[in-house]
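Page 42, continued from yesterday. The earlier attempt failed because a stray header line got pasted into the input along with the sequence. Redoing it now with the clean sequence only.
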Amino acid sequence: MTESKADGVKVVSPGGTYTGQQGFTYGAGASKETVGAGSICMNVLPMPSGARAKVHYHDRIETIAYMLEGECDVYYGDQLEHKVHLLKGDQIFIPGDVPHAPCNDGDQPCTWLVVHSSELVPT
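This time it went through. Structure tokens are written below.
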């Protein structure tokens, strides 16, 4: 029997988690590891009050994050010289190679929906 593209449709049910490189526990989403995605991934990132990500960048990989709940600051730039404050419903786009660090300095948790390209953006 020949395999069809429709055989690649997969569902990721809530409940699975993994610890990312930033030390946060993510809700496992659609990725290469979970569904075999080749060029995109999406995960849920809950950040408790006081949580701060390590300064990092994604090597030629673009990121879009949507604030599902709460609010959070994102520092970005070569020296983290820029800061934006995101509220529930806001989205942020971060180009590849831009250092950034989300920091939940508020007194309530926040939750992000994070989408990354998995293929390298041409330079």
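Notes: Residues 41-112 form a domain with the Jelly Rolls fold (CATH 2.60.120.10).
Reminder to self: strip header lines before submitting.
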